[in-house]
Amino acid sequence: MNLFILRHALASNPGEEGLPKDLPDADRPLSHEGKMKLVRAAEAMRELGLKFDAVLSSPLLRARQTAQCVAKELKLKQKPVPTAHLAPDGSPKLLIEQLIETGVNSKNILLVGHEPYLSQFISLLISGSTTTAIELKKGGLAKLEVRHLGYARCASLAWLLTPKQLRQFRT
Questions:
Q1: Which of 22, 43, 65, 69 has the lowest CB atom count within 10 Å?
Q2: Could you tell me the residue range of the domain that residue 126 belongs to?
Q3: What does the alpha-carbon distance between residue 155 and residue 67 come to, in Å, rounded to a whole number?
Q4: pLDDT (average), residues 93-108
Q5: Overall domain count for the chain
């Protein structure tokens, strides 16, 4: 199984782009710039031939919008599925259990979420610890090759692309 891990694109802050100053963090949408860069990144994913059998995202708006944009650009049949296990305070153990259930017939799964949770999750799967220093920028994408999904040391980091590197794959 391959796990592709995507950090959500640039989001608007409360008080920006006509948003209320008291906007809850969970309701922050992608910014105009974030949407534009994300479309280019999704086009690059298509150019790379990436296809996903399942897409899971954090329930926070900016992550859901990121997952929906990628699914639309890649013309995926299935819709992204929000899961609390990808929220910033999500449980890696419960996420792994959900992935095991989801991954029965899945070769490529895309996960969309937030930092520092995603970097810690990658670290856990490749090293058994959440302290490996990995930086996943907004809109950055990582690929993990998983031998047998478990709670620790079950994957290899195949690659990690910054958003700028990812967008360079566009033709």
A1: 22
A2: 2-167
A3: 23
A4: 88
A5: 1
